[in-house]
Each structure stands twice: as structure tokens, then as C-alpha cells.
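so my prof wants the structure for this chain in the C-alpha cells format not the other one, which i didnt know existed until like an hour ago. anyway here's the sequence
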Amino acid sequence: MEELPVVVLLLLLLSLLLVPLVLLHRRHRGRRTPPFSLLVVAGSGGHTTEILRLLSCLSESYSPRHYVLADSDKMSEAKIRSFEQKRAETFSESQFSLDRIPRSREVRQSWISSVLTTLHSILYSFPLTYKRKPDLILCNGPGTCVPVCLSAFLLGLLRIKRTIIVYVESICRVETLSLSGKILYYFSDYFIVQWPDLKKKYPKSVYLGRIV
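here's what i got, hopefully its the right format
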């Protein structure tokens, strides 16, 4: 009978030890996913349409969303504002911003002049990327994404801000990468392709099938 009080005492002590652990577990389980600052590079034509389709699948945790587009892009801003307006109907605290930088390369622009215009664009991209300090960059091929991603990569090298770069190659690219893809293949953390032939040629890439 003398052992009974000892057992009761041990059980009591054990319960007192477990209660804080249970409360801590519940606190972590009930905690919401912290927000991720997302920088999205938009582009003229189908690039913006594809990137907005991807964004429609993301949760409210990816906020705020900072859109970067070329200063000569006249169509993307309207698409982005329409997308964000609809998103605000579901997520009342949805936040976004729009920034413009000089276009790094025009269609059919020569290689030599492209280098100069890209360097010019980087001069605008670096302070912008430093200001936004995104946790994640999402892009899908417009020339504007090259200076932005290179600026973010440089911030990581300087230990200022580590940003994850996710590049999604356009569905139009079946056998070869775009020029932006050929460059950012070496700088992105995740390089996603939508056709199996590209996965064979570029082993670092991730093939997920058609996602947009």
C-alpha cells in the first residue's frame, strides 16, 4: 500500500511535465504559416497571362506581392490590377505593388546592344530588389526577369538577403530554352520545365508536366 502514494506522485509529476509540451504543440499547430514576400516578374504577351495562372493557385501566405514589369509594357498592368481586384474579394488583406524598370532587351535586338541595355536595367533592378527584399522570386521567361534575378542573386552573395529564385519555362518551349532560361538555368534555385525533352537536355530542371 505504501507504493501507491509513490505511483500517484510519479503520475502527477509526469502530467505536470506533459502539460506544457501539449500546450506548446497546440500553439505551433494552430499558428498560421508566416507570410512570404513574393516578387513576380511580368512580361508582355502570354508571359503575364501564364504567371497570373500560377499565382491563382497560391495561398494568401504569399503576400505582399511585388510585381515588376518593363517600362514599355502597356498591357500587363491592366491584367495585374484586374487579377488583384478579384483576389481581394476572397482575401481582404491582400497586398500588392507595381514597379517598372527599363526593358533589358527588345525583340530582335542585337546581342551587343542587349548587353548594354541589360546592364542599364540591372542598375535599376538592384536598388529595387534591395528595397523589396523578397523571400521568393517567381518568373517565367520575359527578358525583364534576367536583371531582376541577377540582382537578387548578387544580394545573396553579399549576404544581404537570401532570395529563392523559381523559374518556370514557358509552355511554348518544347525542345529548347528561351534566352532568359539559358541564362537563369545557372542562377535559379528551382528551374521548372513543362516538357520531358527539356528535362533530358537540362538535368538540373524539374519536370512537372503542364502546370499552366
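also thought this was worth mentioning. The CA atoms of residues 140 and 168 lie 5 Å apart.
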